[in-house]
Amino acid sequence: MSNNYLGYHFTVEPKELGSEILIAELGELPFESFIESEFGLVAYIQKQLWTENILDDLYLLNSPEFTISYTIEEIEQVNWNEEWEKNFEPIDVDGNCHVRAPFHPKTDAEFDIVIEPKMSFGTGHHETTHMMIQHLLDMNVEGMKTLDMGCGTAILAILAEMKGAKPIDAIDIDNWCYLNSIENAERNNCHQITVYEGDADLLKDKKYDLIIANINRNILLNDMQQYVDCLNENGTILFSGFYEEDIPVIDASCTEKGLTYVSKLQRNNWVSLKYTK
Fold first, then answer.
1. Would you say 19 and 62 are in contact if contact means Cβ atoms under 8 Å apart?
2. Domain coordinates of the chain in residue numbers?
């Protein structure tokens, strides 16, 4: 049986939001891996699962808010490690924390996190994750009951456990992220992380000392009250996933709900904010 794949090279404008929606839509189809590219993303599907009209029902392709084009290439016997080595750069934070794939060499960083990156990381992934890691490295999280909201690959939950936080809930609405987070927690010998598939509705009656939320602006604003409600007094909340120009509206929402601003980190116009209750 042929093991050939088709690679769809999508050019997406606006890239950040469009790519996120496109991945969510393609994830409902038999596409099984996504790689961020300079102009959008590449999506892979086994040729035997492909049909000529596979994209016909995609909302995004018919939306006037997005401009999307694509080309298709056939690839023989995809070597995923090779594809990822070409497209996935390890994250190194001040030599103290190194996030890498299994095929990258181990460094002598104090916190060495290994993830199997068979998914797309949204635009800005490295910047926002880098800043959230910086915040966690600067904090004493020992014994803190922690939430990693929109956990993706669970990198931040894993680092929190390595630094002594416990217990930890990791939540993502995406099924692939949910499954991948479970795998990555196991891969890094984590025993304090429980992964859930869902959204902020899962937070009812929960309480945390530390909340990590690396999500986009609109979700943060929509779910802010639920985050604040489940944050213990004197607890800390870390936000990222948005731009410098989004700070006023994020800050207004936080202040209105009783949070106190502590600090800001910035990388390439992406920002991360720290608040306490």
1. no
2. 5-78, 124-276
Q: Where are the alpha helices (DSSP H) in 114-268?
A: 125-138, 155-162, 175-187, 217-229, 247-256
Distance CA 276, CA 234 (A): 6
Residue 75 three-state SS: strand
**In degrees, to the nearest 5, what angle opens at C-alpha 258 toward C-alphas 166 and 208?**
10
How many CB atoms are closer than 10 A to CB 102? 12
Residue 5's DSSP bridge partners are 46, 75
Q: Does domain 5-78 have CATH number 3.30.70?
A: yes
Q: Which two tokens stand for residue 269?
A: 């116009």
Rounded CA-CA distance 130/134 in Å is 6
- Does a cis peptide bond (omega within 30 degrees of 0) precede residue 90? no
For residue 193, the SS3 value is strand
Record the pTM.
Answer: 0.74
Q: Which CATH superfamily is domain 124-276 in?
A: Vaccinia Virus protein VP39 (3.40.50.150)
C-alpha span between 29 and 8 (Å, rounded):
13
Token digits of residue 277: 């209750």
φ, ψ (nearest 5 deg) of residue 173: -80, -20
Summarised one tens digit per residue, pLDDT across range 76-123 is 765 655 666 666 778 899 899 999 888 888 889 999 999 876 554 544
| Average confidence (pLDDT) over 234-245 | 93
Task: Give the Cβ contact number of residue 51 at 10 Å.
Answer: 10
